[in-house]
Recover the amino acids of this structure.
């Protein structure tokens, strides 16, 4: 089903009945075994997340034979730590798979996890999940969103480049990474490289700090204010222009 067929799906807030589907999608997307327990966001952890921060949990669902199916998931939490502070490894930020470190007063939304079922990738599901996450920043009046995007394509270059060198080339758009390039194409800003973010050999344990900070973007786009005293000069028309 990968690729071109149109796909009818919706992004909704996760409910308890979606928990087994979230667990399946996560394991399938990451190539983890599905026939035994996996140390990741499991159904019990989803239940904890829903108690702590239900608005921050999203699933993409479709219907097959009239039965609801989870095809994507995105998990977020609130934090007081700004993306300008020293980045921490993923697990130190979240505290537990059930989001022990979620802070209801935190001004930042933190992207904990995103995954799309392999049979439904490249059809806009993650993009729709991002839209829902970034929409939450506005809805809750937060400063922004950030996350570490794992450099999942690094292993292809491990003989030639360090993870940092690879990450910098991905941020510059010189190399394409299956995860981080997709995130950069969704308008997120690649601000830094985070080594030792999460133990994942394909990514050399390294992530890119991805940030969405709407007010900063507005500030950057605003034309510079004239310096005091130069206001009148700014109003002069060039000679010959009427
Ligand atoms: C990374 C991941 C979440 C992306 O999910 P996805 O649903 O395939 O993402 P999207 O379909 O929204 O976008 C992926 C690409 O498909 C393209 N696409 C979207 N709709 C499309 C369609 N109908 N036909 C063809 N391509 C399409 C997008 O343009 C995008 O390409 P671009 O980045 O070059 O613009 C998914 O690959 C995944 O689960 N990977 C494993 C887990 C993982 O790495 N998670 C992130 C950890 S940080």
């Amino acid at each position: 089903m990968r690729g071109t067929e149109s796909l009818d799906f919706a992004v909704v807030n996760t409910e308890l009945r979606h928990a087994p589907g979230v667990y399946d999608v996560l394991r399938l997307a990451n190539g983890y075994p599905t026939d035994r327990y996996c140390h990741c966001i499991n159904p019990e952890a989803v239940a904890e997340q829903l108690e702590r921060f239900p608005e921050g949990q999203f699933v993409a669902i479709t219907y097959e034979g009239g039965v609801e199916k989870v095809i994507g998931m995105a998990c977020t939490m609130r934090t007081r730590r700004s993306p300008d502070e020293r980045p921490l490894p993923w697990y130190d930020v979240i505290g537990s798979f059930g989001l022990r470190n979620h802070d209801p007063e935190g001004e930042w939304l933190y992207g904990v996890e995103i995954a799309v079922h392999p049979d439904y990738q490249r059809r806009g599901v993650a993009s729709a999940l991002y839209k829902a996450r970034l929409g939450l920043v506005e809805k809750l009046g937060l400063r922004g969103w950030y996350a570490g995007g794992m450099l999942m394509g690094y292993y292809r270059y491990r003989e030639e480049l360090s993870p940092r060198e690879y990450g910098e080339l991905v941020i510059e758009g010189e190399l394409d990474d299956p995860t981080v390039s997709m995130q950069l194409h969704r308008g997120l800003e690649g601000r830094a490289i985070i080594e030792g973010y999460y133990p994942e050999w394909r990514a050399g344990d390294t992530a890119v700090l991805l940030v969405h900070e709407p007010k900063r973007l507005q500030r950057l786009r605003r034309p510079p204010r004239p310096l005091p005293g130069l206001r009148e000069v700014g109003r002069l028309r060039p000679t010959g222009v009427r």
